[in-house]
What we know:
Layout: H1 3-6, H2 20-30, E1 34-39, E2 42-48, H3 49-58, H4 67-70, H5 84-94, E3 98-103, E4 106-112, H6 113-120, H7 124-139, E5 144-149, E6 152-157, H8 162-173, E7 180-183
Parallel strand pairs: 6-7
Antiparallel strand pairs: 1-2, 3-4, 5-6
Helix pairs in contact: 2-3
Keywords: CBS domain
Protein name: CBS-domain-containing membrane protein
Pfam families: CBS
Amino acid sequence: MHARHIMSIPVTTVGPTTSIDDCLRIADESGFTALPVVEDEHLVGIVSEGDLLREKFHNHPRTEGTAADAMTSPVVAMTPETEVSALASAMLRSGLRAIPIVENGKIVGIVTRRDLLSLLTMDDTRILHEVQHRLDVYAGPHRWTATVTDGRVDVSGADAEESERRVVAALAETVPGVTGVRVG
């Protein structure tokens, strides 16, 4: 499984000149514990709740800091094709709460500890619900039927061409917790 399967999108970002107060408000409203700092559509840093609180309470009360003052740079970032195990290892080794996902220099998602926890709590019932929902949205209800055993998805139903079967398999593979897919 790859970062693209579990990353949160869209990503809530701030600019380097965003005030600390605005960053705190944005973090609170978005529910994210880390905000990528983006300039000209490129990732230049990241600010965590801890960074923002330190900057807010350690600065002179009359001095208004910015995201640039509090951010960590350079940033640990990974690609959409990064294996989830590599993301988890990087988070554990470095104590990171979130890792931005970047493609062609632009941020396309973010993987948080919450995303990893959600992956670990996926059981066969939740996987089946999500796979079946995606199949129904794609082809309409009852065209394809899925079953799940130990994360392995078996899809049956419509007599379809190989290209559609590949699409159905790809839809099922993108569900977190899926360990394999067979379209029969």
